[in-house]
Write a structure and sequence with these properties.
TNFR-Cys repeats lie at residues 54-96, 97-138. The protein has helices spanning 2-7, 161-165, 178-236, 240-258, 267-277, 283-289, 294-303, 307-321, 336-348, 352-362; strands at 12-13, 23-26, 29-32, 38-42, 51-54, 59-60, 71-72, 82-86, 95-98, 102-106, 112-116, 124-128, 137-140, 144-147, 150-153, 324-325, 333-334. The protein has 365 residues and is of the alpha+beta class. Among the domains are: 2-72, Tumor Necrosis Factor Receptor, subunit A, domain 2 (Ribbon); 257-362, Death Domain, Fas, CATH 1.10.533.10.
């Protein structure tokens, strides 16, 4: 009654206050809306309320409104497997539901189809029966699992169970097949052992190959050295005077070497200076550019536990190949040609700062 009395209250001026939800604004005044089940026939005036009339047959209006028309009632379609729950009234629409044996499949918020309920197939058990809102839910029987929409016996797929077990949670329980699980475990262990065997064989073969390559390289170097020594001896034998001159020059060279200033680098000191200046991650790139082979690099890494000592050995291999002044023992010095080659490679690798520091330290012009 309170709602009706509010709707029948004379209209008020919209200028005084905003219209409440029971009213709507028109021509500057707040007019009352029509009740549910009614439609607007005539708008209100300043001294008269809105005039409403009931919805006609086959029409309804389920909320207060100021519409001049009512909505048409829905019809339950038997052809779409619908049946009527309650008829249409002036203030409510027709209510329909799916027939027995069908469920409501929503297409969007207002549209749906009545779809026939699913029936559990062979080797399936009923989990949840079909309702007018949800479809039937079926699951595989014990010792069966689902594949491509069908329930298949576990015994048919023993060889593929490892692949399917992770994909199908309804796969046969392990406690029903102790022998079956033993087969799975044995197969897994066999695969792991096979992979480990292949990996170990590969590593051993690679190391053996590297050692052979290094051995061949060392033998070749020794043979070349022996041939050079034989050649020098054959040249020196014909002339005793030449031998005396060479001995004199060698003695003079050793005396001069002892008088050299500190700026002439010894091999060991020079290599450690290079290690201090060249970044660790660019060391292999540097020695490769200097002609050190990958086999020699790998051998240096295998012979030395620490990176710095391995890099020292790589540079030592390079320095020993180049011509140098030999004074015996710790007096080996780096030839100028070797210094210039290293400085050139450093600049090519964008390590100009390291090259400049070496030039400054050893007074290389």
């Amino acid at each position: 009654r309170a709602a009706i009395s509010r709707l029948n209250t004379p209209p008020s001026s919209a200028a005084k206050k905003q219209c409440e939800s029971w009213y709507y604004e028109t021509d500057g005044i707040c007019c009352n809306k029509c009740h549910a089940g009614f439609k607007l026939v005539e708008k209100c005036t300043s001294n008269q309320i809105s005039r409403c009339t009931p919805c006609g047959d086959g029409e309804f209006s389920d909320q207060i409104n100021f519409s001049s028309t009512c909505r048409r009632c829905k019809r339950c379609k038997e052809s779409k497997n619908e049946e009527q729950v309650s008829p249409c009234q002036r203030d409510s629409n027709t209510k329909c539901q799916c027939k027995k044996g069908y469920y409501k499949h929503n297409i969007d918020s207002e549209t749906y189809d009545c779809v026939e309920c699913k029936k559990c197939g062979p080797n399936e058990t009923l989990t949840h029966p079909c309702t007018r809102e949800t479809d039937t839910v079926c699951d595989c029987k014990e010792n069966y699992f689902r594949e491509k929409g069908k329930c298949e016996p576990c015994s048919r797929y023993v060889s593929h169970v490892l692949r399917w077990r992770s994909s199908f949670p309804s796969l046969c329980p392990a406690h029903h097949h102790p022998q079956f699980m033993n087969m799975i475990i044995g197969f897994a262990v066999l695969v792991v052992l096979l992979v480990l065997g292949i990996l170990i064989t590969f590593i051993a073969t690679k190391r053996s190959f590297n050692k052979k390559m290094l051995s061949l390289s060392s033998k070749s170097s020794v043979q070349q050295t022996e041939q050079s020594q034989d050649f020098l001896v054959s040249i020196n034998e014909p002339s005793v005077e030449t031998s005396l001159e060479d001995a004199t020059e060698t003695s003079f060279g050793e005396q001069e070497l002892s008088k050299l200033p500190d700026c002439v680098p010894m091999i060991t000191d020079f290599i450690y200076s290079v290690l201090d200046l060249v970044p660790l991650q660019q060391m292999k790139q540097l020695v490769r550019s200097l002609g050190v082979t990958d086999t020699e690099i790998e051998q240096a890494e295998m012979d030395n536990r620490y990176c710095r000592e391995a890099h020292y050995q790589m540079l030592r291999v390079w320095a020993q190949r180049a011509p140098r002044t030999v004074g015996g023992g710790k007096s080996e010095t780096v030839h100028r040609q070797v210094l210039e080659e290293l400085l050139s490679k450093l600049r090519q690798l964008h390590l100009s700062r390291a090259a400049e520091e070496l030039e400054t330290k050893y007074a290389i012009q």
